[in-house]
Structures are given as C-alpha cells and as structure tokens.
Amino acid sequence: MTADQEKQQAALEAVKFIKNNMVVGLGTGSTAKHMILAVGDLVKRGMNLTCVPSSEATQKIALELGIKIVDLHEIDKIDITIDGADECDENFQLIKGGGGALLREKILAWNTKYNIIIADSSKAVKKLGAFKLPIEVIPFATKQILNFLEAENLQPIQRTKDGQPYSTDENNYIIDVDIFKIEDLKALEIKLLKVPGIVETGLFLDTTNLIILGNESGPILKYRN
Ligand SMILES: O=C[C@H](O)[C@H](O)[C@H](O)COP(=O)(O)O
C-alpha cells in the first residue's frame, strides 16, 4: 500500500463519522484532500452539511465540489473536524503546519466538539520533532523572533517560496524550528506564545479525539480516552 493509498483509506474511514446536518471543519493538505473529495460525495448523495474550510486552498477544492461553505463567524461550534498532521505521537500530540495552514487549523480544532486526525502510517512517531515545527509570525517582528529562537537553540529557518518569504492565508510568515531535543512541549508552547509577534505554533497538544492511520490490513483507530 502506498502512502497516498493509506491517506485515502484513513480519510474514507473518518468521513463515516459525519452525520446529516453536521457542521464539518475541513482540514488542509494532501490527506485532507481525500477527505474533502469524500465529503463532496456525501453531499452529492444528498447529505446536508455545512463546512468550514481551514485554508483558501481547501475552500477552493470544496467549492468546486459543490460543498456548502460558511465562515467561522456564521456558526457557533463545529461538530467534527477532520484534518491531517505532519507528525502524531502516542499521546495524541501533533505537529501541523507543513502546508502553512496551522493558524486557521488550530482555530478550527479549538472550536470543534470532535477532532479526527487522518494520516498515513509514516506520520506516527515515538517522539515529535523529526519534522520541523512551524511557527507563524507577524512579518514586522520576524527578525527579532528569529534572533530569539536562535538564542533558544531552536535553529530557526524562515520558510521561503520562490525566493520570497512564504506568506500564509493570514499574510504572516512561517519560521520552522527544531524541537527534537525538547522534552517539555507544553512549556515550550507557553514560552513561544509569550513572545510578541508569534501568532501561533504548529503544536497541537490537546485537541485531538481520534487518530486514524492508514494501514495495510485496514485502518487503525486510536481513541483518546
Ligand atoms: O498546514 C498544513 C496542515 O497542517 C497539514 O494538515 C499537514 O501539513 C499534513 O499535510 P499532508 O496531509 O499533506 O501530509
């Protein structure tokens, strides 16, 4: 089974949790794309769903499929959000934001009753951090934040695209840092979010309810108690 087949398998398993009349949060990325396609099929078959996209890219795909999209301010709470991850560990902690969508994704996750993460099996790790942690920052403060992260030994690298600073849907920049040696991720999160100009980090430490991993002999479902 290829990684992409595992992603699709996890996505198809996850959409089974979607029921009629739900408000559904749509994640971002290659795994989430399989899920959005499956949500499009549910809608075509007559299911009434209202969806909140986590990025401009996801919104575009969803609209092309005829999925009803609303802004977050138009609804109160999201029933279920299905999203991908760059890494997940055994404690339901995640690194997200490889595709730059971490800020809106985290806002959706925070405002969702039930969060499902879908991934191919390579995303499940013993310890987070082989994947660099994305941090979203305000452009005005980028230089000083890079200096701060350097002093913290986090080996910051500002993300670029076509030789220019990478810009998020919220017109911010991304700095990727190395957290592999960090033991206390909660303390790191608190420290980072205290820095003026750091808007959000790609650490999702306590929002996930269920992780679905693609697997050769059928999807693996890990429920958080
Ligand atoms: O910013 C991007 C998101 O956090 C994605 O969900 C994450 O990067 C995983 O993407 P993919 O499913 O393409 O590996």
UniProtKB/TrEMBL annotation:
**In the Enzyme Commission scheme, what number(s) does this protein have?**
5.3.1.6
Q: Which CDD domains match?
A: RPI_A
Task: Provide the reaction this enzyme catalyses.
Answer: aldehydo-D-ribose 5-phosphate = D-ribulose 5-phosphate
| Residues at the catalytic site | E105
- What keywords were assigned to this record? Isomerase
Pathway recorded for this protein: Carbohydrate degradation; pentose phosphate pathway; D-ribose 5-phosphate from D-ribulose 5-phosphate (non-oxidative stage): step 1/1
Annotated Gene Ontology MF terms? Answer: ribose-5-phosphate isomerase activity
- What's one GO BP annotation on this UniProt entry? pentose-phosphate shunt, non-oxidative branch
- State the superkingdom: Bacteria
Family annotation (HAMAP family): Rib_5P_isom_A
Describe its partners and assembly state: Homodimer.
Biological role: Catalyzes the reversible conversion of ribose-5-phosphate to ribulose 5-phosphate.
Q: Which PANTHER family does the entry mention? A: RIBOSE-5-PHOSPHATE ISOMERASE
What's the name of the protein? Ribose-5-phosphate isomerase A
Task: Tell me the organism.
Answer: Leeuwenhoekiella aequorea
